[in-house]
What does this fold into?
Amino acid sequence: MRNILIVGAGQAGLQLALSLRAEGYDVTLMSARTPDEIRTGWPTSTQAMFDLSLAAERAYQLDQWQQQTPQIQGLHVVLSAPPGELAFGAPCPLDAPAQSVDQRVKMAQWLIDAEDRGVEVIYNSVTTQDLDALTQLGRYDLTVVAAGKGELVAMFDRDDERSVFTSPQRGLAVSYVHGLAPDPKWPVPHVGFHAIPGLGELFVIPGLTNSGPCDILFWEAVPGGPLDRYADAAGRMAPQVHLQITLDLIRQYLPWVSDRAAAVELTDAKATLHGRYTPTIRRPVAHLPGGGLALGLADVVIANDPITGQGSNTAAKAADFYLKSILARGTHPFDETWMNATFEGFWTAHGAAVTGWTNAMLQPLPPHVQQLLGAAAGNQEVARRFANGFSDPNDFGNWLMDPDKAAAYLAEVGAA
It folds into this structure.
């Protein structure tokens, strides 16, 4: 059976490794951290995974937290205008629940599972020089890089035609907390999407962490604005200071959320994350000095801003798409033509739609989108379609992304 090397033990790398192993492939996975180091470390992400992405996990028995994690029933889109005053709220129900499992929980368990299921796991950081040497051994039929941070990403050239931005569009600040009271306007578990036009957004995500069910308070701040009060990514702010800033901003700009936060406390001593990065699309094939090739996966080649909650979803879908392409390749070589075709196939099927939608959400909402969200507040069909677009963003191109299509849709459902 063919031998695959995967560098990076996040959502995409581990999912691909485990699913390939289930299909009988020999898989070597390189992880910079052990399960214990991941479990006791700092969070690396927020995540809200929707049904299509969860289905890719369920196909290989990887979705192990259904009984413990809150089952997210939808999104509550809330618009503040002016800041501190509620303009409207639109509960948007999902057809199938979403869920958010702290990657410190998920990736630690998946690494243990990988070793138990016969994946060769090597715990070591990998440099470009290391990867060059590995590809020259002749042992691996295919090398996949799924480590979206660090030196290896620089091997993949920026795609200037598909990369819209040259600087970060949001400052990101995350707190995992216990003690947040339910939203009295929609008490079921849901993602709160609180938009403050011109300043940024707060997301409130029910999740599961090492200490049990929790909520994730996630600020997306327009750089240089009044919400952008967290330290630069180069330095780590003390967690309690970070949380206090988060709560102060909520109190000032979103008092209806602050009313629920009287008993909030961090879930653990390392429950915060902050930073910023430039959304970037990269070319999928890296050429190593010794002549070897590596195929980029997920955040390595499609690094969108998390404003639409699609990072882990894109990673799961990419791992599933690459898996199917590898299986279909049979005994043929994984050459550069195949690598480019695999990525372009994923870009057409998923990447282009989610990137276009995410980039649009980073801009001031155009009038037709504001009208659609306003309609969602009073029309369950519009609300449900908006929520389910988070599972399959391709649908947004049929109605949300174009003013004429939006007007036609609102007329069709009687919500103009």
Q: What stands out?
A: The longest strand covers residues 86-98. The chain has a mean pLDDT of 95. Residues 121 and 351 are 29 Å apart (CA to CA). The chain has twelve helices and 16 strands.
